[in-house]
Amino acid sequence: MPIFHNKPVATLIRWYVDKRSGHVQEAREELQRRFDHLDWSQQKKIVAAFLSSSKTDRKWMYTHMLSWWDDCFAPQIKDNWEQYHEERCAWLIIRYFPKEYVMAELDNFTGERDYFHVCSRFCRDEDFVIDDSKLSVRDRFVIHGLSKKPMDGDRCLDDIFTCLHETCVISPPFLEVNKKDRGEVLDALDIKYIYGMRKNMERMGLEDHVRRLTDWNRKVNQCILNSSDWQQLNAENLSDDDYNSKRILVMLKYVYKNLDDKYKSDYLDDITYIDAEGRPTQATREQIRGMIDKNPAIGTLIESFGGIMDDDDAIPF
Prior knowledge:
It contains 16 helices and two strands. By secondary structure, the protein is mainly alpha-helical.
């Protein structure tokens, strides 16, 4: 059995390319292992071999090439893209190819965040028009913040309050919040993605709308400080982890209570259930329990605010 790690690179490439050599797999693994430590002349030969090989090997090479690039590879990448339209090949096109080519291929990029990465590269150009319909809510804020091309301020606030509502309902178990000392209130702007959305509003120059958001958040903060939930939380002898978990739930409760009704029409205040025919209907308590079985995070939120209700109130707090 040959000792592959002692073989010259030229031999390994020859074995790898010759599918009848009997050593394709061993040569592949050894070339991948050595690749980062080889000189440029040898790397170029391996790139050419892998880009002309199987889908799996092309995928490995596309990913590897993201961290380094040379324009000498552009013709082969262009040929591969136009032949296969592979997602990881698209990443290289979006990152390294001329703007004119990227824009001409825009409709062929099908990855979930491909358009976001196109925008990240070109959004600062005066002639680049951002298509908000192709971006997620949070990505819209990032791109408009980068470009300093403002969105409508009222729409920004609607987006933020809608996202807050979804967060309150789902109560993600690993919600990222800013670190604060024990005894300090967490509020909506301590949720990291909300803080980021506000910062991007500032970059867009939406001072008046940032002020409205800050004023609303200040009201939430004061509601928490004045609440019995906050007093009880700080009276309990809890570990830091338990304290922080409950502090987040208290924050979500009062964020929810201070949201305008127009942001609450679809969830805990008017819980719906999709029946077998795909029609939304009012959920029974049994169906709510079924939702909790499928999504324990909803149960965590409801339980922390008093459990499944025994009356007809629409929300658990």
